[in-house]
Design brief:
Blueprint lengths: L11 H4 L26 E2 L2 H7 L8 E4 L6 E7 L5 E7 L7 H12 L6 E2 L1 E7 L2 E7 L6 H6 L8 H20 L13 E3 L5 E4 L22 H6 L4 H17 L5 H9 L3 H4 L10 H14 L10 H9 L9 H5 L5 H4 L7 H7 L3 H11 L18 H18 L3 H14 L5 H13 L3 H14 L4 H13 L3 H20 L1
Parallel strand pairs: 1-6, 5-9
Antiparallel strand pairs: 2-3, 3-4, 4-7, 6-7, 8-9
Helix pairs in contact: 5-7, 5-11, 7-10, 14-20, 15-18, 16-17, 17-18, 18-19, 18-20, 19-20, 20-21
Length: about 500
Amino acid sequence: MGARCSKFSACWLHSHLKPSAIESPDPENGGRNERSLIPIFSEFNLEDLKSATNGFSSDNIVSEHGEKAPNVVYKGKLQNDTWIAVKRFHKTAWPDSRQFIEEARAVGSLRSERLANLIGCCCEGDNRLLVAEFMPYETLAKHLFHWESQPMKWAMRLRVALYLAQALEYCSSKGRALYHDLNAYRVLFDQDANPRLSCFGLMKNSRDGKSYSTNLAFTPPEYLRTGRVTPESVVYSFGTLLLDLLSGKHIPPSHALDLIRGKNFPMLMDSCLEGHFTNDDGTELVRLASRCLQYEARERPNAKSLVTALMSLQKEAEVPSYLLMGIPHGNESSKQPLLLTPLGEACLRTDLTAIHEMLDKSGYKDDEGIANELSFQLWTNQMQETLNSKKQGDAAFRAKDFATAIDCYTEFIDGGTMVSPTVFARRCLAYLMSDLPQEALGDAMQAQVVSPEWPTAFYLQAAALFSLGMETDAQESLKDGTNLEAKKSKN
């Protein structure tokens, strides 16, 4: 246990930095030789897809669209244990089977780690089906609009924007610049929680190309005039996605542009992001969105310039997406997720108010059994003064006067007469409340030194590490605290 404490020395910051997770995918191989890992495009028979989807069971439906785009997407599993997504078109969408297969083969020739790639199709009788890689962690809409445990972090939102722009740039470089009905439901998250663009949007929903199924308030102005998708229309839709990422909700572009023109940025920004990004970064993303939403199509940027602009905005590039998203990974995904205590949950969310309530309520019960060699000093004035400073610190802590609490607890600690892990824990939180996460981390580690088997010390380390942006080690500290909690409950 003790060896762990040294890892947060100054040199740790440099020695533990990972290679950047923000990489530009190689258009020729999909990045990191991924082309060799993805099956080549092939034609499936209907029986195999029926078997994979349990007879196209309604239990396997992962998305469904209405009359303007009459199709359903099913989750399926092939006999070789490969998970797939199967999109089933309405029989009237593609009456010409040869045209459908040609279009599917063209899209299926693309291979990129920024796409949920198309790996096959099926065309038997009236059936028109597409088969793609399955993305296990749902859609951007789910994580952005309907989140349950935590809102999407600013760094992850910037990564989504970049990866999406890279996907569009790759498609353009391969002659597939048209993407139909680009929206938050078309962005999916793979097994590493990296965002990918669904290949289904590269296929028309029908042969006439009239495929906007969203509210017309979100469609490009030229589409309303012509009913056709152009590369510039795709950039406009990308602009609406930037608005989604900024606001955490689906705002009509006309309303957003009114807010932008009125310099009313706070009304546009997601309140969950307050304090998590700089004004310069927010302003730059707003500026980029407004450029994409220009009324005149020729005034909008192209995908390549979007990638360049977004690359310079990236944050926490060394942190994997699954950590930013709080999603289990690798062997962890096959295990039970961490069953955090309320204190662990509060530290995961960096909910300082909840942490304060719990520490205040638990008092000093966890100090029992901590050896203090008081000897004769117990009866001296020095001892009484030390106890008084702790008592004053507790009163200030309870009253949320954290500056006074820090002063009083420091006097108690510097007195050196008694050792209390709870005092270190309380001063740790007072430091966090005072926006001093480095000092807080030091106190959480000191609490661990005094009481090596105390889960609270690890949970508070996690809270401090989250505040410092050290996501990987914060998650490790949470895991350590949870394991200690489980060990205590067994005993």
